[in-house]
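[Automated response] Your request has been received and processed.

Submitted sequence:
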Amino acid sequence: MKAQWEARADLVVVGTGVAGLTAALRAHELGLRVLVVTKASGPDGNTRWAQGGVAVVLPGEHDEGDTVGAHVADTLVAGAGLCDEDAVSAVISGGPEAVQRLRERGAVFDSKPDGHLARTREGGHTAFRVVHSGGDATGAEVERALLAATTDGRLPVLEQHVAVDALRTPLGAVCGLLVLDGNGVPGAIGAPAVLLASGGLGQLYQATSNPEVATGDGLALAMRAGAMAADVEFVQFHPTVLYTGRGARGRCPLVTEAVRGEGAVLVDATGARVMKGVHPLEDLAPRDVVAAAITRHMANEPGGVDDHVFLDATGLGSMATRFPTVHAACVAAGIDPARDPIPVAPAAHFACGGVVADVDGRTAVTGLYAAGEVARTGLHGANRLASNSLLEGLVVGTRAAEAIAADLALGALADPKTALDPVLPTAPVADRDSLQRVMSRYAAIGRDAEGLAVVGSVLDLSTVDRVLDTRRLVEDAALTLAARALIAAAAERTESRGCHVRTDFTARDEERWHRSQVVRLTPSGQPVLADPYLARGAA
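Generated structure:
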């Protein structure tokens, strides 16, 4: 099936989260004709669910002794040796200006009585440097402000349009996007630059903190266009998602790490501390450490409970006002956090890897850019430091817009008029329910060679080649590709590092594995490992 309608722009942005909207607004300020595409409605992405805040060291508003350098150091420690130090420095040092720009666009952060911004601390941070809004509704405020700015600036947003494939020239440059509108009618948007800001892939798993739209679409589209992915084996599981019963599926309410930052502790069914003696920071250890510790603890079935632990926040006394989102979720589940410990368990949360891109959003494919969770810039390494994600979206979104404007001005991008005829692609599609079940069982926090092989076999047996002519098929094809890429990388990495935990290779192997792995697609569409050195820089 070919495109039935056409549109033109200088830049097409896929996604309406923090990275996409920040990039779109900055590109619009620079005089570019921008068109934003989202497969749902504007607010339906992952950004609005971010609770904790933005990690940033602001001039005149930081802990005594805290510095940008200290924030960089904490990020490198959390990343377990796989961060790109130059990328980390660029993003962290760009934080203050990015937050200031966001505030100028209307975002309001919580303040203390003296007028300074309130700050909290989360796992892996050595200082109180996380600014927040609405107590635990920072993402919602960021999304509100950015969406309001697009409306005020008359920035066009195509809702209910799913990105299917990149338009390409005979030489392989990206020059637009093939999409399906809300009625399934294919359309072609010609543009010399396409920025993917489509978020993560939490729906690979049965239980996740991510909304239903997080299906890895951008990763799949980029790889089909010739881009590479890296660090895809590192999927961060948030340690504390509200446990709502055995067999919970889909998006589960998050219990922000800031609750532990302000004094709550993890305990088991017997009341024993989960993190005592596990790490010097105990309950505020990096997320990979806490999630793995909870998983090991549950395996011992303390008090007869093997599928959750508890977060004791009864001593905080201010849950309803400081953490209203968490408090409301608890009350809805019949829990009074002022009196009862909150049942929690780890759930899929954040993809640390993704499309290989630099901190200016450039990939190895001319005309294709990536920012936010879909991108692997080198900021996160093997495990993300808490509250660095909104920061990354703000900083890289801005830098990507400026890079695109520069590339256009230099004439470095392709003319959309040279695009090959857009045709809906055919791709392998696995049964989503089977995929989620085997990924959750064999490719979550604890993995081994036998289990990863089971995932591969199930995917092979349940996969059928389909024309991607509906949103559901686009999503399921993306999940299938993402799952295959992840298990290929996870099976090869015979060590435990960050949020990649192998039960058959429990040690960290610096001699062999102090490096990232790169995944590319074969001509037949199969993800395979590529030269690891390709991960060093993108363009």
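Summary generated for your ticket: The longest helix spans residues 471-492. The longest strand covers residues 342-351.
If you did not submit this request, please reply to this message.
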